[in-house]
Amino acid sequence: MTETGDRIQPSFKNLTHKDYGRPNDKQHMPLQELTRPHVDSFNYMLEEGLGKAVQLIYPVEFALPNGDRISFTVLDANVYKPVVSQSNKTSVNLKVYPAECRQRFVTYKGNFQITFVWKINNKPQDTVERTIGEIPIMVKSKRCNLQGLSPKELVKHGEEAEEMGGYFIVNGLEKVIRMLIMPRRNYAMCMIRPSWRSRGKQYTEYGVQIKCVRQDQTGMNNVLHYLSNGSATIGFGYLKELFYVPVMFILKGLMNVTDKYIYDQLVNGKEDDSFYKGCIVFMLRQALTEDLTTQTKVLQYIGSKFRIKLPLPEWYSDEEVGQFLIRECICIHLENNTDKFNLLIFMIRKLFAFSKGECAAESADSPANQELLLGGHLYLAVLKEKIEAWLISLKATILRNAKTKEGTYKLTSKTLEDAFRHTADVGKSVEYLLSTGNLISRSGLGLMQTSGLAVVADKLNFYRYLSHFRSVHRGAFFAEMRTTAVFLCPVHTPDGAPCGLLNHMTAFCQAVNIQYPTAHLYKLLISLGVTPFDAPPPGNLKDCFPVLLDGRHMGYLHSSIAKKSRTEIEGYESQRFETGSNNDGDMSDSQDRIC
Amino acid sequence: MRPVKNLALDTTEMIGSFEQVYMDICINQNEAIPGVTTHEEFSEIRMLSSLACLTPYSDCNQSPRNMYQCQMGKQTMGTPCHAYKYRADNKLYRIQTPQSPMVRPGMHDHYDVDNYPMGTNAVVAVISYTAYILTNAVVAVISYTGYDMEDAMILNKSAFDRGFAHGSIYKSELIDLRKKAQDKYRTVLVFGSKAGDKRTEGKLDPDGLPPIGTYLQDGDVYYSFYNLQTGEYRVERYRKSEPSYVDHIKIIGNDTGTGDMEKVCIVLRIVRNPIVGDKFSSRHGQKGIYIIFNPHGYPSRMTIGMMIESMAGKSAASHGHCYDATPFKYTEDQPPIDYMGKMLNAAGYNYYGTERLYSGVDGRELEADIFIGIVYYQRLRHMVSDKFQVRTTGPIDQVTHQPVKGRKRGGGIRFGEMERDALISHGSAFLLQDRLLNCSDSSLAHVCKKCGSILSPYMDRPPSANAAVSAEQERKWSCSICKQTNSIELIKVPYVFKYLVAELAAINIKVNLDIQAF
């Protein structure tokens, strides 16, 4: 990024420059920067995201009428550059360029191939590579045929010399996936929402919400609700349905610990608060009335209740179903049950402190509590879901075929090949998303809106075209307050209905696209005096600050050394200039909100 | 994340929105508090978007005006791309004689907007917030006759003749014969015209398409195609009220590289030079319809930036300088007006940017000094040609016999309840009747005075075929209820009323009319 753009002295140099109007050797960087959030996020999807997403796809398992247990596990997914149709025997060049797609009113798309292994009775049979559709490719991304071309070559291929990319071509139209504002990931926020009261008997408007985002950018909301009888339930959504479970059940299902341990974790530092202690004891007793004494019993209980709602085969035990639920629905950004447990402990403490007025509500409207959902990340989440949907359609086809043949049907590479013919086309649904902006999704992807996700990048003039790539939509969720704070421009918003909802990024603002590794920060923080959970606490928690790193509750820091540690962190922070790391391990934050 | 300057280390540091809340960042050195401030902004304009920082002197304008400019900048007819030939957008605007602004912020060069210019430097005289746009630039702001409309401007004829704000629209029209034939799998129709066909001779090429450069008007031969099954040639005509030129034609194949002369994309060029009613705007949210610009537009809108631009533009043109219009460059102690005034003086102009002008009506010198200077003007895409709507008689609705709505269908503009109230309050009954009855669905109806029904009167059966011709005229209306003919009267009612009575009859409600002569 050129840092001095705003200090350029304008001049008439173009009037006298003898090469003005001829393509330069290199593209003009500031213009390329404008679409970078789009192009980079798509590249992220191609290079990292898809690999991570595929690993997190849960295998599809089912039984055939003859008793064989089949499973499909996706190993890899790849996107290829756009090429001409296989049946085309006349073309000289196999590559398809965007200019052709625009002029022919077709979609600029490349093959999408997945590799999966299929197993019978847990015995691997074969690895299959299969193109499951053609998906739209972002112009100038790493799978675009224009990538890395010089201005001269771009002009040769019917493009602008300064072509910036960042959009898709769907039926000849240039489509941009809008950037959306989302609640900040992996950060537990105290909120007051009157609508929460209608969620059930005794529900209050108080809650602690956390939007958990996995490595592959798929998100899920968990809400810890405060109930007027002094207990708390955790709410989560699965396939667009909302479920509420008493949080104590989940805590006990996460770790095999005694009630005393849970009690100590929750009550430490609040020994004087008899009401709070009463609430904790009440919740623990509630679990006991269902005879949930051990972790296994809890998991069995949860599993038996949720089995009907989860797409798991019937041979899974209740305990396994319970574990699946905890893995897929509770604090999904953490892989480890101990981490999930510790985070829930933190959230419960925060919730009770909040309900008593010991800490303030946080505003969902403040940019500090928001983040951007980039086009590539949304695309990735959609693609991941479509792979799952494809596997499910494959399963459905096989079961349908098996039904007609009754007991004699066996899954072989031939019958599998037959089944492929009747599976869903992944490309169609992605194209639909881009051409209409409407999302059809099984899970809802943790988004707050399902329409208006893609818009035409209308080439009316250069300004209008540019601003499509810089626009940020806030959605209906943040409609109450319209603040900006230097990341979004206070001037550039339309008047009328979308005023303040449709914003534009400031000229020099960039979007964080990669998740930087933060493992080393854990060690660093410990060296600065943070006491981790597995060590004895640094004293009564009354005098300690909780420390969180990327939505993981690390441990506590004693207030006596907090100030010193903070200064030291700032020292380190100033050294990380230009690394662009977005440090979520925020200590200064916890000082304001003592729980 | 965004870059700020780390003061301790004098380096660039990227900060996120989460940490910003807990950081001490100053805007410039003057605001730094020693020991507290750790970071500094690179410049004041860092809070602006890429578009907002292209507004010159935006710090001198009232805030909403800057927001309007962000809106209007996006509606300007400009240069969206250079590869017009390789594009097939529905509608592409193109400005024919763009200029590079003489007064511009640094970000203009940063983004190299010169490659995609959008407006023209116009001389503007403030007369009556009516911008008198003279040559390829000069706006005078004067309150002239007192009849001047606010937000209007006058274009100098010679400026127009030299090409001021001339533009055109490229429209791509896809003609898919396979879709027309409604046969997905076979080629039925192909483009082509018969040699010696009177309809197409000299108008279309043998391929059935119009030659490049053809001027098309409503009703002209557009293209022709041939049916492979019936051997029949068909000719389609151009059905648009606005004439255009054929700019170029693309013959489009299919995915497999086969299928020829089945699908074409005809790109038409429509000339859109400024005419009365087109919209223009400066870069300060000061829009106007091309007639006149009046000084009353300044006090309420407070677009000081535009006045500075006007002076800076004049000075820029005189000295040949390019002016830096980056916001926040000038301060209270060093006002831009003072600097510009001195520059104007040096060029031999009045310090305040005013000049003596002569009335264009009778050639007398105007008593007042007129503020006049050069302002960069954008032509907005809203043009009368796309918007005007006029109708005398025309298509009517099948059911109600009232005029249809919609500009495309030649419909009218609704004269609604509020408009009706206005006419009632003015007591203009005749006009009201004209609008709501005579120009709408006036019709004659037979009504039976005795029973008051308009549904019961009927006409005698037609006379037998061999009866005298005069018998046809002697057919009488009679009431089917009262069985008499002398009670039938002819009255003028809106057609919908008849319809309403019929609909009410369907739900067993009878409407009785009390008819009296007066």
TrEMBL record, chain A:
<keyword id="KW-0804">Transcription</keyword>
<comment type="similarity">
    <text>Belongs to the RNA polymerase beta chain family.</text>
</comment>
<feature type="domain" description="RNA polymerase Rpb2">
    <location>
        <begin position="455"/>
        <end position="510"/>
    </location>
</feature>
<feature type="domain" description="RNA polymerase Rpb2">
    <location>
        <begin position="185"/>
        <end position="372"/>
    </location>
</feature>
<feature type="domain" description="RNA polymerase beta subunit protrusion">
    <location>
        <begin position="33"/>
        <end position="406"/>
    </location>
</feature>
<keyword id="KW-0863">Zinc-finger</keyword>
<dbReference type="GO" id="GO:0008270">
    <property type="term" value="F:zinc ion binding"/>
</dbReference>
<feature type="region of interest" description="Disordered">
    <location>
        <begin position="574"/>
        <end position="595"/>
    </location>
</feature>
<keyword id="KW-0862">Zinc</keyword>
<protein>
    <recommendedName>
        <fullName>DNA-directed RNA polymerase</fullName>
        <ecNumber>2.7.7.6</ecNumber>
    </recommendedName>
</protein>
<dbReference type="InterPro" id="IPR007642">
    <property type="entry name" value="RNA_pol_Rpb2_2"/>
</dbReference>
<keyword id="KW-0479">Metal-binding</keyword>
<dbReference type="GO" id="GO:0003899">
    <property type="term" value="F:DNA-directed RNA polymerase activity"/>
</dbReference>
<keyword id="KW-0240">DNA-directed RNA polymerase</keyword>
<dbReference type="GO" id="GO:0003677">
    <property type="term" value="F:DNA binding"/>
</dbReference>
<feature type="compositionally biased region" description="Basic and acidic residues">
    <location>
        <begin position="16"/>
        <end position="28"/>
    </location>
</feature>
<dbReference type="InterPro" id="IPR015712">
    <property type="entry name" value="DNA-dir_RNA_pol_su2"/>
</dbReference>
<keyword id="KW-0539">Nucleus</keyword>
<dbReference type="GO" id="GO:0000428">
    <property type="term" value="C:DNA-directed RNA polymerase complex"/>
</dbReference>
<dbReference type="GO" id="GO:0006351">
    <property type="term" value="P:DNA-templated transcription"/>
</dbReference>
<keyword id="KW-0548">Nucleotidyltransferase</keyword>
<dbReference type="InterPro" id="IPR007645">
    <property type="entry name" value="RNA_pol_Rpb2_3"/>
</dbReference>
TrEMBL record, chain B:
<feature type="domain" description="DNA-directed RNA polymerase subunit 2 hybrid-binding">
    <location>
        <begin position="52"/>
        <end position="132"/>
    </location>
</feature>
<keyword id="KW-0862">Zinc</keyword>
<dbReference type="GO" id="GO:0008270">
    <property type="term" value="F:zinc ion binding"/>
</dbReference>
<dbReference type="Pfam" id="PF04560">
    <property type="entry name" value="RNA_pol_Rpb2_7"/>
</dbReference>
<keyword id="KW-0539">Nucleus</keyword>
<dbReference type="GO" id="GO:0005634">
    <property type="term" value="C:nucleus"/>
</dbReference>
<keyword id="KW-0240">DNA-directed RNA polymerase</keyword>
<dbReference type="GO" id="GO:0003899">
    <property type="term" value="F:DNA-directed RNA polymerase activity"/>
</dbReference>
<dbReference type="InterPro" id="IPR015712">
    <property type="entry name" value="DNA-dir_RNA_pol_su2"/>
</dbReference>
<dbReference type="GO" id="GO:0006351">
    <property type="term" value="P:DNA-templated transcription"/>
</dbReference>
<dbReference type="Pfam" id="PF00562">
    <property type="entry name" value="RNA_pol_Rpb2_6"/>
</dbReference>
<dbReference type="GO" id="GO:0003677">
    <property type="term" value="F:DNA binding"/>
</dbReference>
<dbReference type="GO" id="GO:0000428">
    <property type="term" value="C:DNA-directed RNA polymerase complex"/>
</dbReference>
<keyword id="KW-0808">Transferase</keyword>
<dbReference type="InterPro" id="IPR007121">
    <property type="entry name" value="RNA_pol_bsu_CS"/>
</dbReference>
<keyword id="KW-0548">Nucleotidyltransferase</keyword>
<dbReference type="InterPro" id="IPR014724">
    <property type="entry name" value="RNA_pol_RPB2_OB-fold"/>
</dbReference>
<dbReference type="GO" id="GO:0032549">
    <property type="term" value="F:ribonucleoside binding"/>
</dbReference>
<feature type="domain" description="RNA polymerase Rpb2">
    <location>
        <begin position="411"/>
        <end position="514"/>
    </location>
</feature>
<keyword id="KW-0804">Transcription</keyword>
<keyword id="KW-0479">Metal-binding</keyword>
<comment type="similarity">
    <text>Belongs to the RNA polymerase beta chain family.</text>
</comment>
